[in-house]
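Hey all, quick one. A colleague (J.T.) asked me to put the adenosine-5'-diphosphate job into the tracker so the inputs and the structure tokens live in one place instead of scattered across chat threads. No bug as far as I know, just bookkeeping. Sequence used:
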Amino acid sequence: MIEDRSRSLLELLMNVSREVATALDLRTVLQRLLYAALQHVGGERGSIVVMDDLGKPVDATIVFGTQFHDHTTQQLRDTVERGLAGWVVQNRKSTLVTDTSKDNRWLRRTDDSADKSGAKSAICVPLLARDRLVGVLTLVHSIPNSFNEEHLALMQAIADQASVAVLNARLYTESQRTARVMSALAEAAAAINTSLEITDVWRRILNQTMQALQVETVALALIDHDSNDLIFQAAAGHNSGSIPGRHIHNGHGLTGQVITNGLGLIVPSVKQDSHYSEVDKFEGIEMRAVAIAPIQSQGKVIGVLEAVNPISGAFDPDAMVVLAGLGSLAGTTIQNAEYLNRIQKAHQRYLELFEDSVDMILITDWEGTVLESNRQAVLLSGYSKEELRALSIDQLHEVKWNRTGLNFETLKRYDECTYESGLLKKDGSSIPIEVHARRVEFEETDSIQWIVQDVTERKELDALRDDMIAMIYHDIRSPLGNVVSSLEMMGELMPVDETLTSMLNIARNSTARIQRLVNSLLDINRLESGHQIIDQNSIDPQALIRESIRDVVPAATGRQQIIENNMTVLPLIWVDVDMIHRVFINLLENAIKFTPVAGRIRISAQTDGVFVKFSINDTGPGIPPADRERIFDKFIRVRGRDRTVGLGLGLAFCRLAVHGHGGEIWVESEPGKGSTFWLTLPVAQKKTTGQLKRKTGRLTMNER
Ligand code: ADP
């Protein structure tokens, strides 16, 4: 007997299982399961609510006798949340209610009273598939005590058997929906990405949104970089004409919420939404429902996509997923379109710069044939653009093949080179030019860009400078030398007379100053044009400093200043003695000039064995940080602090001279507390000291 029952139960379960599992569509599965339950367990009515993994009802089926009712999800939500089904969901246990009027888990309805046909008894079981709660199944009867424990056990067995099928059907339906969304988005992506012209991109995004969501009106707004306001750029559909240009102040309205949270939202009925306000309205459109998604690019919200009034009256459950997908698609495409726009503008700007450049520019291929030329090229060469195009670069100037390589291979390897040459004009004349050749990508082809600078003026200036130096050399320096030696001779021949001696000393000091200035001017020119210092000798730095101090002492004494010499024994240095002597005199004279009357100037030095580092410290006004570099440039005098005049050449000379020796020079200063000029000069190495030549002038003779 028991065996018979077991066998028939097993058969029943297998039948149910077979029937339920052969369907994939969720509705069909639910209907078949309910039907089997009513048939084998009994009851007049039944329902199944299916839930997602978060416990939210996603679908439901209800059956009265043999009639199915499908669209009752909302109605069953209450039961699942608060009624008997709710208890089963929470406890994950099946339950039997023999009399609904005596069980307060039963959510009472108007037809439940004793004299009406409502449910008087019920069984309710959870659908558990591999520990996942998939739904609840409820069977009811209008007569109390219609179900017993046996019914409950049978029901539970059926539910256990069928729940995997329900889960599979649910997953299948979900994947079907995802597939629909994906294909809608893929279609949209294909349509949107066919253009990168920005307004065209907007139009395509709007069309795709309208099609995918089936709404009356769509609009697209972007965040303005400067104001952070949201500005509507484009719209489509019913009465959308007034939307473009609309501003929504930074963060206001529903769009503001979407931007702040970076999440889309759907307002199914604007009338019942407390957040919906005046700013969200569009002129001439009676808004009923709206969906807004952020437009995102590289993780940043750059705008919103808005869909207004679904034609069917309500948004589809997938609407948000689709709109959000369209939003991120739009973001990438808009960004790309903007990049392209920027590149095009940059290209346009390059072309303008190319055309308007004050220098002649030519583009050639690697054969040297001119491909492109600018206005200045035409002006300078005398050839027309067409004529230039037929020429080879070496017909236009004498190419320095040693710089470019015979087939430009050096240029190809090092990307650029610069040299001086002459431009061969159409009329046969030639002008001096400086050529900068560079490997460039022109119209996507590997090419050479030739920037040709007319250096006629510079050449003329160079010539002028050379003339001036020659003039200083011959017309000032030589006669000055005569004056100096004449003064020396006068000193020796003159009778001893205090007044005459003092006058002679003044003349000697002044000519020495002029000589120093002339020599420094010549040095500046020589060092600037890259000449090396050749006349180097080793000398005791103490002697050099003592000599320099001696030359400036009269000036310091005149201002009652004290010059403190803190020099200790140091190794010999390897320098152009006359030049470095002038460097120290310059620094000392500046210190004297800027130190107030009765102030002090301190000189010291130290060595690391490779360089000797000197410092000349004064108690003058100091030098503001902004000027500490500049003062070493030519013709720089810091205005406003002193009335003393100067050319602003002294420190420029010092820097050139010290750098010429491989040393460094800089200033440290605290405004109001004086300045310290530092400089380093190389220590004479053993082998160089041996082969010393005697340096001219009293300095080396007296002090070595
Ligand atoms: P100049 O020959 O005109 O004195 P320099 O090149 O020697 O020119 O100096 C440039 C400027 O640097 C000076 O005008 C002065 O403003 C500033 N300067 C130089 N030495 C000192 C110093 N010891 N204290 C304050 N300012 C100085």
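Adding what we noticed when we looked at it: Confidence is low (pLDDT under 50) at residues 688-704. The pocket of adenosine-5'-diphosphate is lined by residues 590-591, 594, 618, 620-621, 623, 631, 636-638, 646-652, 675 (CB under 6 Å).
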